[in-house]
Amino acid sequence: MSTNNHADNDVITAYKDAPARTVEAGGVTYAYRELGPKGGIPVVFFVHLAANLDNWDPRIVDPIAAEHHVITFDNRGVGASSGSVPDSVEAMADDAYAFIKALGFEKIDIFSFSLGGMVAQALVMKHPGLVRKLILTGTGPAGGKDIDKVAGTTYYDILRAALTRSDPKEFLFFNRNATGKPAARAFVERLKERTLDRDAPVAVKAFQTQLKAIKKWGRSAPADLSKITQPTLIANGDNDRMVPSVLSEDLHRRIKGSELIIYPDSGHGGIFQFHDKFAPVAVEFLAR
């Protein structure tokens, strides 16, 4: 008989096995998954542009879920969540807040990537008391230099991917060089590890509306990020073509006491390319 609590309580710590659940809030049905030991402050994951629940790298989720209650979710109009995608990051943050409140949480940690990091910033600014710790990866601030160019880069790479019958993320998230190409393929394969109960694909209209929201965010007035007093971990690759790497440095300068990790020879998906280095850092940051 195992004395390991995880075995006895049947705590799921592999993202591929996390049950698909739904919750109602404000007339919207939100699709989400949860795993890891319950109790304590949950870590809510905010996903990227054009992504659903199946887009999280299990090599990042699983190490965090070994010690924390992890929740991933589809915001309104995304994947299996009902409703339509709002055309502003701030409205996405309002939906995320409604979802978190519907689950009954008073305090959360946030893990965010790309568009998710923008939504996370907007949420923290509106509801500072809700968030204990903040992880911002592959993202940038409102009014950040060249964020409004994300759409052009994205469409260009979707076209390049279509021509080579590959996944657009291989172009968007990774360098097209000797280290980037195999890392890209490995990442795309990991996303297929879950075979049952996969999420609904993201509709083209939802994706286009998200791009519109990112453009607005890029063109809006810079937010006063000195208001963010939560411990914050910021990470990216050194060659992010989607949300330029300098924006991670910008966030780091403006969020007092934040920590910054820039991974070498990697792009927007630097944390996925370096998951073996990054996951332990994230776990340590959350445990502190």
- Encode the helix/strand succession as letters: HEEEHEHEHEHHHHEHEHH
Helix fraction bin: 25-40%
The backbone outline, from C-alpha atoms, is: globular
Which class best fits the helix and strand makeup? Answer: alpha/beta
Number of helices: 11
The CATH topology name reads Rossmann fold
* Overall radius of gyration: 18 Å
Q: Name the poorly predicted regions.
A: 1-8
Termini Cα gap: 32 Å
- Quantity of strands, as a count: 8
Q: Largest sheet, if any? A: 8 strands, mixed
Which strand order do you get reading across the main beta sheet? 1-2-4-3-5-6-7-8
CATH architecture descriptor name = 3-Layer(aba) Sandwich
Structural domain count = 1
Average pLDDT across residues?
95
CATH superfamily: Alpha/Beta hydrolase fold, catalytic domain
InterPro entries: AB_hydrolase (IPR050471), AB_hydrolase_1 (IPR000073), AB_hydrolase_fold (IPR029058)
GO molecular function: catalytic activity
Organism: Kribbella antiqua
Protein name: Pimeloyl-ACP methyl ester carboxylesterase
Question: What this model shows, in words?
Answer:
This protein has helices at residues 5-9, 58-65, 89-102, 115-126, 150-163, 168-172, 180-190, 204-219, 246-254, 270-273, 275-287; strands at residues 20-25, 28-35, 43-46, 70-73, 108-113, 131-137, 232-237, 259-263. By secondary structure, the chain is of the alpha/beta class. An eight-stranded mixed sheet has the order 1-2-4-3-5-6-7-8, with helices on both faces. Helix 2 (58-65) packs parallel to helix 11 (275-287) and helix 3 (89-102) crosses helix 4. The chain starts with a helix and ends with a helix. Residues 1-8 have low confidence and may be disordered. Residues 43-272 form the AB hydrolase-1 domain.
